[in-house]
Design brief:
globular; 2 domains; Rna Polymerase Sigma Factor, Chain: A; Arc Repressor Mutant, subunit A; 8 helices; about 180 residues
């Protein structure tokens, strides 16, 4: 867990509502993407479980032991909510698996949507669990398409220092991404 999240959880436990708002804004979209992936892109069900997950997180924040990242904890709540949903469902025949589907890249017919959502969910999960400065650097570089010079100016570092930080951020991402994909 990064130290910023750790501090925010402490503040939440002390009753500071603004701290919860920051965590909510940071992880809300990531959690929804995680749910969409595990629910076969069922947006309605993902929305319901997303809301239930945040409700449990608010109720149980004092039980969070900080042995994992906050996002990992949220995902474990979400996964339990998914299981609860299907246990209560009488439509056993229409269940969607909550486990990752194996993807056979040698097969002639590959479901591109499944493959892309799998990769997308893994990218989101890995990004959410990196150090916050790595998240910002990688987001600026690859999502915002900012140059290394622009990033260096924004963070007040030299070009060379920013380049080194980006290299470390990419290496951390690759390591985590490789590890998560080896589990699938």
């Amino acid at each position: 867990m990064n130290s910023i999240d750790f501090d925010l959880v402490k503040k939440i436990r002390n009753g500071e509502q603004e701290a919860f708002k920051i965590l909510y804004l940071k992880y809300s979209d990531l959690l929804f993407t995680y749910l969409l992936h595990h629910l076969g892109n069922n947006r309605e069900l993902a929305t319901d479980i997303w809301q239930e997950t945040w409700c449990v997180a608010v109720e149980k924040i004092d039980n969070f032991q900080m042995k994992s990242s906050f996002f990992t904890w949220l995902c474990s709540i979400a996964k339990n909510k998914i299981y609860d949903h299907y246990r209560q469902s009488k439509r056993q025949g229409s269940m969607i698996t909550t486990e990752k589907l194996p993807i056979d890249i040698a097969a002639e017919e590959i479901n591109d949507d499944q493959f892309n959502s799998e990769i997308q969910a893994n990218v989101v999960f890995v990004l959410a669990n990196l150090k916050s400065n790595y998240i910002q650097l990688l987001t600026d570089k690859y999502i915002e398409n900012r140059s290394t010079e622009e990033i260096a100016l924004a963070i007040g570092r030299s070009y060379k220092a920013t380049e080194s930080m980006l290299t470390r951020a990419r290496e951390a991402f690759r390591k985590e991404f490789k590890q998560i994909n080896s589990k699938s």
